[in-house]
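Ticket closed. Logging final result for Ubiquinone biosynthesis protein COQ4 homolog, mitochondrial.
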Amino acid sequence: MIIERARVPLSRWQQAAVAMGSALGALVDPRRADLIAALGETTGKPAFEMVLERMKKSEEGRAILLERPRVVSEQVGHAWDLPENTFGAAYAKFMGSRNFSPDDRPPVRFMETDELAYVATRAREVHDLWHTLFGLPTNLIGESALKVIEFEQMYLPMCMLSVIGGTVRFNEKQRSMFLKHYLPWAVRAGRQCTDLMCVYYERHFSEDLEQVRRKWGIIPAPQHPK
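Final structure:
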């Protein structure tokens, strides 16, 4: 499967211009998923190359690269029919309770090769699976904490920039909660778990959620302090 034919080749200065414009735009409006995506692509090539090499050394990673599964409705819709205790059902509940669609992710546009474009696409599409595994909400604290985990897993500069941008927008109570509870947890959780980009999640949808968490070394998010 070829990923998104509308890729745009960029020179180095064009990449820098897109990265700077995307960073400024995302700081002004963090809801702009397209700008955050562009920032991740234009600053993340070395990180995605390292992820690609790790995937090639992993049995499940190689299977992912060979078969190129997509986290889109056509391929993961069966999760909505799985038993309540399963990983797939937990993902479906997470998506349904927020009226999210697996098809909402913006396409990858600025990767140079099909292989890197797929890795970037995969990283983007498993985001909500990671939300499910770690039990993180989609509010500002939850998204910032997941970006810390993504940075620990992939070393994408965009992730750390997103955390910095998020903390700027925290109120005093949120900032204190994030720094005291969520940041240290996220660093530990991101380092302790398995290489999450080498997990073929779709093959594990029918397994018990708590069992897959234990198998992959997932530490669920701390409970919201009272």
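The CA atoms of residues 2 and 117 lie 9 Å apart. No further action required.
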